[in-house]
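Recall the central idea of this unit: under ordinary conditions, the amino acid sequence of a chain determines the structure it adopts. In this exercise we apply that idea directly, starting from the sequence alone.
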Amino acid sequence: MPSWQDQPPLPATWQRCDAGILPLWWERLCAQMGQQSATLYAAGLFTEDRRRPIAQWFNPAFKAALLVAPETSPEWPVQRFGIFYAPPDAGVVRIHSAPHEWSPRQPRRSPTEKEAFEAAIAEAERFLQVEMDFV
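Accordingly, the structure predicted from this sequence is:
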């Protein structure tokens, strides 16, 4: 199996931007499910931007984005990173993938939070490679 270092580079149209949650996520969720439901979605991640780490890619040409972020409530015994896709122009979709989980109660046991995050990023980047074949 090739390592993440052997993957081809991401298409130039996708820019990595991890500084803060893009407003695009909140706008899309509100349009898709209404403000009240959007506030509760992913434990407020899209409105509060309080949990880290996250990884985001944005494609301004297509008005599309991809996000890797915690998707479980902070108090859950098993935490998981989710991959969310905002396709060109409208909507938000959770990408179904291998579980990228870790246990905060056993921070040194593999997979660690860092290992789960890196695996989710690698899967998200593979998704972007494939997605560019369809847009």
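The two ends are 27 Å apart (CA to CA).
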